[in-house]
Design a protein that fits this description.
This protein is α/β, with parallel strands linked by helices. About 50% of the residues lie in helices and about 15% in strands. It has one domain: Alpha-Beta Barrel (TIM Barrel), CATH 3.20.20.30. It contains 13 helices and 10 strands. The chain has an 8-stranded parallel barrel with strand order 1-2-3-5-6-7-8-10, surrounded by 8 helices. The relative contact order is 0.14.
């Protein structure tokens, strides 16, 4: 089973953004050592609790401290940017790191309305131009645009992925002949149906074939009880965000002490149902069951914890359980 990592460089209580980014680098090294296929960095804006605002910059740091694992964006929010500049950035990474680079693209705002306005004029108008933007990006990355080349031209072109959480994104990826990553952890849609639709509607481009990744939220620990304790930090953090907060990831102790309303408890239970939380055997069984149902080619795992060590161990336990 192919496994990959999606990381948002979350900032925990008592941690600086620099320390959060360094912890993410160490996580990428863990993935490198334990056979993970990719490490993707997310793009978020105006969130003090998430340090990954510029994946293309961050990935240079990650690539320089790893040797095998693929590195990519999860995702570059394309409506904010000119495709030519995106192609230049990732061609630069591919020139430095060879056949290890992915360009994951998305069209979500990734932050507040104020952040969107500060980043770019006319974000919504650019969202409507997404098909044109993708065609431009493909032309620059594959060096088929006759007008201008996106130097430096690498020996191996980056792979382009479409990321999404809906049937619309799957249909778009299929129409454009792109690789597709479905964010199940952010969606209420049936992932099996969406991935089936993508494969059925896929229009090959050159010698391409459909390939799917499913993004899932997982917390794994030596025992089931420990896993639920560790997961509580992220769950309570999400509850706090729903009340307008933007604080750091709370410690397990602070999360346990947080007073939940009746509505909060319903929300927390709903979030837990979208996650996989357990010991290595339980997590491995759950991932195998999802793969059997969805036939996904790969899992992209997102894990947010208070402790960077707990996070690294979670990924270690998963890899070890599935490779036994």
């Amino acid at each position: 089973m192919k496994l990959s990592i999606l990381d948002q460089a979350p900032v925990a209580e008592g941690q600086t953004p620099k320390e959060a980014l360094e912890a993410s680098m160490k996580l990428a090294q863990t993935g490198d050592a334990y056979g993970y296929t990719r490490f993707w960095a997310a793009e978020h804006h105006a969130w003090s609790s998430l340090a990954s605002s510029s994946p293309e910059v961050f990935l240079g740091y990650i690539g320089a401290h790893t040797s095998r694992i693929r590195i990519g964006s999860g995702a570059v929010l394309l409506p904010y940017y000119k495709p030519y500049k995106v192609a230049e950035n990732f061609n630069m990474l591919a020139t430095l790191f060879g056949d290890r680079v992915d360009i994951g693209i998305g069209r979500a705002p990734g932050g507040s309305a104020e952040a969107s306005e500060a980043l770019s004029d006319g974000f919504l108008q650019q969202v409507f131009r997404m098909p044109e933007l993708v065609d431009e990006l493909v032309g620059y990355v594959e060096n088929t645009d006759a007008r201008v080349a996106a130097h430096p031209l690498p020996l191996y072109s980056p792979e382009i992925w479409m990321l999404g959480t809906s049937r619309k994104s799957a249909a778009f990826a299929a129409e454009k002949g792109l690789l597709y990553c479905f964010g199940q952890f952010m969606s209420d849609e049936d992932g099996a149906e969406i991935l089936d639709a993508y494969r059925e509607q896929y229009i090959p481009r050159q010698d391409s074939r459909p390939y799917t990744i499913m993004g899932v939220s997982v917390v794994c620990a030596r025992t089931t009880e420990a896993a639920h304790d560790i997961a509580l930090s992220w769950l309570i953090w999400q509850v706090q965000q729903s009340h307008g907060g933007d604080g750091a990831i709370p410690s397990i102790e602070a999360a346990k002490a947080y007073e939940l309303t009746a509505e909060d408890k319903k929300k927390l239970q709903s979030m837990k149902e979208k996650m996989i939380i357990g010991n290595p055997e339980e997590v491995a069984d759950a991932l195998r069951a999802i793969q059997n149902r969805t036939d996904t080619d790969e899992f992209m795992i997102i894990t947010i914890t208070f402790s960077p060590e707990d996070k690294r161990k979670s990924y270690q336990y998963i890899a070890q359980a599935l490779n036994e």
